[in-house]
Design goal:
2 copies of one chain form a homodimer. The N terminus and C terminus of chain A are likely disordered. Chain A is an alpha+beta fold. Chain A has 6 helices and 3 strands; from the N terminus they run αααβααββα.
Chain lengths: 122, 122
């Protein structure tokens, strides 16, 4: 029950140096999929809540209190994050427990590092 | 002519540690705005083309050849990137020349670094 429906291709993500050479259409589609998933305020807050929750994992029962949204709406947003490979879920008894997939976040984070990362301009 | 219509709040972005503590609604809205802008394959390729172009800047005339899209469509995508603070433009004679705003990219990149960034899990 812990499998991704359509996991992100971490290898493709980590080899996408956005700032150093032009992305191919395939690379940009793969990366954009992750950014689109987190490019929504509720989903970004969910990601943050999961990542910072005790033990690094959280179930819907831990998350609903932070939002004025229904359980099904939150579950939908979690599904989008999961399908983009940003989080993964594992069912235990009644609940699915979600945790961050650090490999995906590390890959997209490093893809955005400016080419002049060695210098400080801000 | 080089001003952003609505620049990103770099200070807010860089103080949004997605992975270490729960984001506020305001922090998530600010960050999500940037991720949404780059969460589209054409825009991500445009960003990559600009960042890796000779001199670190490019005009629409340099970019249209990479896409089977009209000039106005590309200009629209550039406007979205600009309004999110990802790129900035400067008009010189006929053309607007775009370059990446590294401070925005650095801020959103660092916001995604997993809390366990010191360890290697993948």
């Amino acid at each position: 029950m812990s499998k991704q429906e359509a996991p992100a291709d971490d290898a493709a993500l980590c080899c996408s140096p956005v700032m150093r050479e032009p992305l191919t259409a395939e690379q940009s589609a793969e990366l954009a999929r992750v950014f689109k998933a987190i490019g929504e305020p509720v989903r970004l807050r969910l990601l943050s809540l999961i990542a910072s929750h005790a033990g690094g994992e959280a179930c819907v029962c831990d998350l609903t209190g932070a939002f004025e949204l229904s359980g099904p709406t939150i579950s939908h947003h979690l599904k989008v994050l999961r399908e983009a490979g940003v989080i993964e879920g594992e069912r235990r008894a009644t609940w699915i427990y979600y945790r961050v997939r650090p490999e995906t976040l590390r890959a997209v984070s490093s893809a955005l590092v400016p080419a002049d990362a060695g210098t400080v301009t801000a």
